[in-house]
Design goal:
The structure is a single chain. With 208 residues, the protein is an alpha/beta fold. Helix content is 26%, strand content 38%. It has 3 helices and 12 strands. Strands 1, 2, 3, 4, 5, 6, 7, 8, 9 and 10 form a 10-stranded mixed beta sheet that branches. A two-stranded antiparallel sheet has the order 11-12. Helix 2 crosses helix 3.
Length: 208
């Protein structure tokens, strides 16, 4: 009888804790792309100079990057460890383009983009990771939606691309680094879409 009573008490405690969510501490995470598995190719894809300036953050809630809802009922908001979402997105895109052989660099301001043939910026409409803990696993849904605008300086033309990606992942042992890795993946998928849609014509960037 003692074992049955103990089991009932423990089950009651789990149900009670799961039904009473509490506010946990914010979890600062890095926003960017994972280090490249192999070094970028030495031969540039083009001699066109590309500058990437900070994106505008158009998300409905700019104070966080989603939440981690633990099995025990605690909600912990994800926040950006340093800088802003717009800056982090631009830095990540510049790094990705460099890996692909583009002559790209991050320009913190429009003034520092002078001399570039193409200036890329845009808007972040969604960037989030929501983790839901269960017994023995955690399900995470990550989303990223970007409007990427490339302005050609030689002729004043521009192109605009809207890309979005949603990924759902399950991890056994959850850690903050999982949120970083998953956000990195959805961002990289969108950067990949943008690159696959475009090509260089002379000193300008055009759609394929």
């Amino acid at each position: 009888m003692k074992h049955i009573v103990l089991g009932t008490v423990l089950l009651g405690a789990v149900v009670w804790m799961g039904g009473c969510a509490s506010k946990g501490d914010a979890v600062p995470i890095n926003v960017g792309i994972k280090p490249a598995a192999t070094p970028a190719g030495s031969a540039p894809a083009s001699g066109v100079k590309v500058a990437v300036t900070p994106f505008q953050d158009d998300r409905a809630d700019r104070t966080k990057l989603g939440n981690r809802h633990s099995f025990w009922g605690t909600d912990e908001p994800y926040t950006v460890k340093s800088g802003t979402v717009g800056e982090a997105t631009a830095k990540a895109l510049a790094e990705y383009l460099t890996r692909k052989g583009w002559q790209a660099h991050y320009a913190p301001s429009a003034g520092e983009a002078s001399g570039a043939d193409v200036v890329i910026s845009g808007k972040v409409q969604d960037l989030s990771a929501d983790a839901h803990g269960a017994l023995g696993s955690t399900d995470i849904t990550a989303k990223n939606k970007l409007i990427i605008q490339a302005a050609n300086q030689a002729d004043g033309s521009s192109i605009t691309s809207t890309t979005s990606y949603t990924g759902t992942y399950t991890v056994f042992w959850y850690g903050p680094e999982d949120g970083e890795e998953i956000l990195s993946e959805v961002m990289e998928r969108n950067f990949e879409k943008f690159v696959s849609q475009t090509k260089f014509e002379g000193a300008a960037l055009r759609f394929q």
